[in-house]
Amino acid sequence: MATNNLLATIFNHFDNFAFYNVNIYTLSLFSLIIGLLTLVAIAYLAWLYGRTYCNTICPVGTILGFVSKFSILKVHINDQACNTCGLCEMKCKSSCIDSKNRTIDYSRCVACYNCLNVCKKKAISYEFAHKKKKLSVPPEPDPSKRTFLSVLAVSTLAIPGKMLANGLTKAGANTSYHKQNPLSPPGSGSAEHLLSHCTACHLCVSKCPSHVIKPAFMEYGLGGMMQPIVDFEHGFCNYDCTVCSSVCPNGALHKLTKEEKHSLQIGKVVFVKTNCIVYRDETSCGACSEHCPTQAVSMIPYKEGLTIPSVNPDICVGCGGCESICPARPFRAIYVEGNSVHLQAKRFEEAKTKEVQLESFGF
Fold first, then answer.
1. Residues 6+ apart with CB under 8 A from 225
2. Distance separating alpha carbons of residues 297 and 262, to the nearest angstrom
3. Where in the chain is the domain with CATH 3.30.70.20?
4. What is 191-344's CATH number?
5. Residue 324 in contact with residue 232, Cβ under 8 Å?
6. Using CA atoms, how far apart are residues 195 and 189, in angstroms rounded to an integer?
7. Checking phi first, is residue 86 left (phi over 0); if not, alpha (psi -120 to 50) or beta?
8. Residue closest to 186 by CA, chosen among 126, 258, 234, 134
9. From the CB of residue 49, how many other CB atoms can be counted at a distance below 10 Å?
10. CA 33 from chain center: how many Å?
11. Could you give the maximum distance between any two Cα atoms of the chain, in Å?
């Protein structure tokens, strides 16, 4: 994305608009930290014990290693033929061969047979199990590797820490608020249904064209961590979009038609007048009203020719168009409060106007 923005700057300078700038932001700081911590944990285990993740944590590797430990047929090294060249150890996927001591750790062997073909001395064979040899003490880890991985781990962990420090919003003069109910994606019906069916595959997160679905932290509680949640910090839910419900593989999100989506209410609009720049700064705005597809937000006369938002939560569908565009910071003047159970929004009805007929001009 950064490369795209660089190209956009260069091309736009020459009046070529083939590229355009895009916003770069972290969809979910929590999920980024989880991913980085997982990477560091796997690297640390590999540093000390080899492919511990693949052999012990991964279900496939664990089962294969367990079966291999008690297998009738096993890989063996011929001590007389082996010249300790180390080719078998290099090709071993499970890092279970110690070529220096000519031993094999059968609890980690997955019987991939890579070692059989690579041995030039034909010192490795696959035959009936013999008596186990004692495993030698593993050699001391290379200090240079430890230093490199330590610096890498510290540097990696420093990135999200810096992002968190930069991302923390200082409380300003406007009124703070806290959303009582999280916004579950369209088609979930309720947060309870989502949590009982969702496997956190994140297909809806990756496929959302507006990038408003992200992994949750503690919004659903401890049991809902990493489950999809709707957030309007950087965008809003497209009024006609039903992508998330169509890609869900297990019924956590029921498939919606466009017509069903138009009347589905995942949340209701809330207006905080004291945060509105029309009220605070006495300046014209109206961005929230312009981005509302159902006219749940409208502008009404305020004072000195200004207009201020007025909301009708009953016809709101909770798309977040108003929240995402609101310029008030750090707390926005308008936001969407989630419905614990999704409802049907009422239809917008225009006020009937009475036609007045004048018999004369009146002057």
1. 30, 215, 216, 217, 218
2. 16
3. 50-128, 191-344
4. 3.30.70.20
5. yes
6. 11
7. left
8. 258
9. 15
10. 11
11. 122
Q: What global pTM score does this model have?
A: 0.64
Tokens read off for 100 = 């220096």
CA 6 to chain centre: 25
Distance CA 298, CA 277 (A): 16
Owner of token pair 């159970």? 341
Query: Domain 50-128: which CATH class?
Result: alpha beta
- Rounded Cα distance between 18 and 63, Å, is 52
Angle of the 29-49 helix axis to the 143-167 helix axis, nearest 10: 170
* Dist. CA 81–CA 274, nearest whole Å: 85
If we measure between CA atoms, which residue out of 231, 181, 191, 194 comes closest to residue 211?
Answer: 231
Per-residue model confidence as pLDDT tens digits over 108-151: 787 888 898 889 888 888 888 765 444 444 445 555 556 656 65
Q: E strands, 166-322, where?
A: 213-215, 228-230, 264-271, 297-301, 307-311
